Amino acid sequence: MGYERGDVAIAIDPFKDGSSGRPSLVVGRETTPFHGEQYISLSLTTRTWYEERIPLAADDWVEGGAPRSSSIMPWSVTSIDADLIERYQGRLEGGVVDEAAATLSEYVRPD
Predict the structure, then answer these.
(1) Domain annotation for the chain: domains and CATH numbers
(2) Is the model's pLDDT at 15 over the cut of 90?
(3) Kind and range of the H or E run holding 73
(4) Whole-structure pTM value
(5) Would you say the C-alpha torsion 43, 44, 47, 49 has a positive or negative sign?
(6) Secondary structure of residue 82 in the 3-state scheme
(7) pLDDT by residue (tens digit) across 62-80?
């Protein structure tokens, strides 16, 4: 299965032994180098003490959903190898995806 911007996938963390997988939001586009083999993504979390997190509401999910209240961590960027993706979790509405990508952009843009 190929993944698109807005998809949430569960992927194994290659740096953590015994990883049961972490949900990640695909923010890269089809024009991203190696799209289909690797996906630029932002991690999701159930932790609530991160002030800069972007909480997800039930209506942010176009498909699927999360078993617990979740948030996007726009500073937690990773490139996921397609081989490490275990399964599709769902798809988020475009507005919240754009908000997360814009926040990431603010973190890395030059002053």
Answers:
(1) 7-108 (2.30.30.110)
(2) no
(3) strand 71-81
(4) 0.91
(5) positive
(6) helix
(7) 999 998 899 999 999 999 9
